[in-house]
């Protein structure tokens, strides 16, 4: 079955710098990739997604890139702020509405 | 406001006791999920439900069963809970293709 691997388990950046979180997937049929943010002690909240018919999507300071050849997608957070500190999860849709999640990246933004 | 509601939020049980976790949504979403979250493992899919009485095993169904008798309600049952089922359990339903998560139930099995 589909596997989604999230490469950075932790990431520290200085406030104002960009943060990049990378994920890879195994199933070439995967067509939809959402990202979630989880603050300490809270639930997962959807932040941005990308579908396989595009290779870039931006929502304010969040950019998602998709490289279908490499089966890789990444979340770029620009001009980071302390409130961006959280755990970020990538996910892939294997079809039949089954979502597989990465293990999460703990992002720390240092003021 | 679209919301997935989980009850209870916190639960402590003894090993061997039965556990019932409840999840509700009022958006008539057909597809619902139960995941568990453990540190370093991300979210693992326990069960997926495509509609009433249409449930399918996820990646880690052993030790769990589910019930969906109404579209808006999806229950997770642990018969004779084990200590390794201590975890945070999340319910979700599909909204605009992406899972919309409830606030989670933190279960401790002692």
Structure in a nutshell:
The complex is a heterodimer of chains A (111) and B (110). Chain A is mainly β and 111 residues long. Chain A is 0% helix and 57% strand.
Architecture overview:
The complex is a heterodimer of chains A (111) and B (110). Chain A is 0% helix and 57% strand. In chain A, strands 2, 4, 5, 9, 10 and 11 form a six-stranded mixed β-sheet that branches. With 111 residues, chain A is mainly beta. Chain A is globular. Chain A has strands spanning 4-6, 10-14, 19-25, 32-38, 44-51, 56-59, 62-67, 72-77, 86-93, 99-101, 105-110. Chain A starts with a strand and ends with a strand. Chain B is an all-beta fold and 110 residues long. Chain B is 0% helix and 60% strand. Chain B has strands spanning 4-7, 10-13, 19-25, 32-38, 42-51, 54-57, 65-70, 73-78, 87-95, 98-101, 105-109. In chain B, strands 2, 4, 5, 6, 9, 10 and 11 form a seven-stranded mixed β-sheet that branches. In chain B, strand 9 and strand 10 form a beta hairpin. Chain B is globular. The mean pLDDT of chain B is 95. The A-B interface holds A 1, 6, 9, 32, 34, 36, 42-46, 49, 89, 91, 93, 97-104 and B 31, 33, 35, 40-43, 45, 48, 50, 58-59, 90, 94, 97-104.
């Amino acid at each position: 079955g589909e596997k989604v691997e999230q490469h950075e388990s932790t990431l520290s950046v200085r406030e104002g710098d960009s943060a990049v979180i990378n994920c890879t997937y195994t199933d070439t049929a995967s067509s939809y990739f959402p990202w979630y943010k989880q603050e300490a002690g809270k639930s997962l909240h959807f932040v941005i997604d990308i579908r396989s018919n595009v290779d870039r999507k931006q929502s304010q300071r969040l950019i998602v890139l998709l490289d279908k050849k490499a089966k890789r997608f990444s979340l770029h957070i620009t001009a980071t702020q302390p409130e961006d500190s959280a755990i970020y999860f990538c996910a892939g849709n294997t079809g039949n509405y089954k979502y597989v999640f990465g293990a999460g990246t703990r992002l720390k933004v240092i003021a | 406001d679209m919301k997935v509601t989980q009850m209870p939020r916190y639960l402590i049980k003894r090993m061997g006791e039965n556990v019932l976790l409840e999840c509700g949504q009022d958006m008539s979403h057909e597809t619902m999920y139960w995941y568990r979250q453990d540190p370093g493992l991300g979210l693992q899919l326990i069960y997926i439900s495509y509609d009433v009485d249409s449930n399918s095993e996820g990646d880690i169904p052993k030790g769990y069963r589910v019930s969906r008798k109404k579209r808006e309600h999806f229950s997770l049952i642990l018969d004779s809970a084990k200590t390794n089922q201590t975890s945070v359990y999340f319910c979700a339903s599909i909204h605009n293709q992406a899972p919309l998560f409830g606030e989670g139930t933190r279960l401790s099995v002692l």
